[in-house]
């Protein structure tokens, strides 16, 4: 038997390794609506710190799901967008959003608020 580089109990672990955590799915979800600049993402996710946003963007870029576009201008301009590989996550991210809406309604009824509810 060939020795494995990595062993997963289930493929869900591999998915969560890439998009898991509090912020990565949120960042990716917003990127399904198009390119975003750092400040746009920060305003869409006000509770994330700049340091954490930068770290999460770097990790997503390393995984190949987002692409960082740097424009050679003053002041510097950087945008982030999904790669083709990243676009393959769109359906699952939007399903997570739909499930979350149902969960919020089930658990809280009309006593919870979703601050940003883009139409998809």
TrEMBL record:
Residues 10-108 form the HTH hxlR-type domain. The keyword Cell membrane does not apply. Keywords: DNA-binding, Transcription, Transcription regulation. InterPro entries: HTH_HxlR, WH-like_DNA-bd_sf, WH_DNA-bd_sf. This is Helix-turn-helix domain-containing protein. The lineage of its organism: Bacteria, Bacillati, Bacillota, Bacilli, Bacillales.
């Amino acid at each position: 038997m060939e020795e494995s580089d990595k062993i997963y109990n289930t493929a869900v672990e591999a998915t969560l390794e890439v998009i898991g955590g509090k912020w990565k799915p949120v960042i990716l979800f917003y990127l399904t609506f198009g390119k975003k600049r750092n400040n746009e993402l920060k305003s869409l996710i006000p509770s994330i710190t700049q340091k954490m946003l930068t770290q999460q963007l770097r990790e997503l870029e390393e995984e190949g799901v987002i692409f960082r576009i740097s424009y050679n201008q003053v002041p510097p301009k950087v945008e982030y967008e999904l790669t083709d590989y990243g676009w393959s996550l769109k359906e699952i991210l939007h399903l997570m959003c739909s499930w979350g809406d149902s969960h919020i309604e089930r658990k809280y009824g009309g006593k919870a608020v979703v601050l940003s509810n883009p139409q998809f």
